[in-house]
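Pasting as-is:
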Amino acid sequence: MQQIYIPVERLKTLRGDKKLIGSFEKATRCRISLTAGDCIEATSRNDNAYDEFLAKNVISAYGRGFEPHVAELLLRDDYYFSSIDLGREFGNSKRLQHVKARIIGKEGKAKTYIEGVSGVKISVYGDTVSFIGSAEQIEEAEAAVNTLIDGSTHKLAYARMEAAHRKHKEKAHDIAF
């Protein structure tokens, strides 16, 4: 059994949506139980620890703000979840809000561009920025986001991400031949 803790707002939404719980149960082959407190328990129906691990990843991603269909991408062998806790980096909530705004960009343009180039899915929720994608996609997106967190320009952030993207494409091309 895996115990999973997610933000209260997302837990309330999950509690109110039995279809969503059923969808997660079907996708992960686990029984999903909402305890009286603030915990979610995932228990494999066939005593498979890997199914429980996957359920924990999917529900944790949902808790970090991803839509269920995006969180369920983690059921694929080639998709991973990564998260940066901005709250640990910035004690000052004003600075935290500023960094989150930079990552999202005006009208969501920075986030959309990073997702478009890297192919990763991004969620900025609470004090975190989270990623779902292949290892290479996450590495590319994190290059841009970490550059923005460090206070550099969007232009530099995009240049670093694009350089990492080119490097991965060249590496894949070299392996193919």
